[in-house]
Amino acid sequence: MNQKEFYAIFKVMAEYYQAKPSDALMEIYWQAFQNWSLEEFKRACNLIMQTRVYPSLPKIPEITEMIYGKPEDQAALAYETLVKAMKQIGPWENVMFEDGAIARAVEAMGGWEQINQWTVDEWKFRKKDFEQLYLANLRAGRTEPVTLYGAFDRINGANGQQGFNKPILITREMRIICGGEVKQMEKKEREALSLVKRQDENKLMA
User: Fold this and answer.
1) Contact, 126 vs 109, CB < 8 A?
2) pLDDT digits (tens, 9 = 90+) for 135-144
3) pTM for this structure?
4) Do 78 and 101 form a contact (C-beta atoms < 8 A)?
């Protein structure tokens, strides 16, 4: 969503609540929602106007809760998104979460490669840690999308070729967007494993 699209929707909602927000106040709202998609923001505002009975302009948390629920619900949804990404992508590819609070929680827990190595039993204990880190980043406003690097980039980095793999995008709606098919990912994984094996053999021969 760009700023022009945001203002068009926000002004309609403000008019509905007979509010005349200042430019400074609208800028505060824009900063809070600039990473949302147009569809998300439009849907949240429509739901607010259909269900909210209070006459004042809705606060930022109210609009957010229309789509993502309360913070605890958001943390649970973020964990579900993370688990889906780990299952479908794995540790090899670079990933970018549209909800940057997920990525920053992952970074604090050791990185994308590291968390993919944990077992189901380990995650039973680490799930709460993730949700707490996620909420801390969410409250701090650290939600800009960032890239988490996988094993391919680590291996390529050792050969001076880091940064060539474009990240796979995981949206807030838990859609996974990438150019390649699963078969292509499996092929790249086999190639990477073969490269690691050759590097190990070279070390032994040296």
Assistant:
1) yes
2) 999 888 788 8
3) 0.62
4) yes
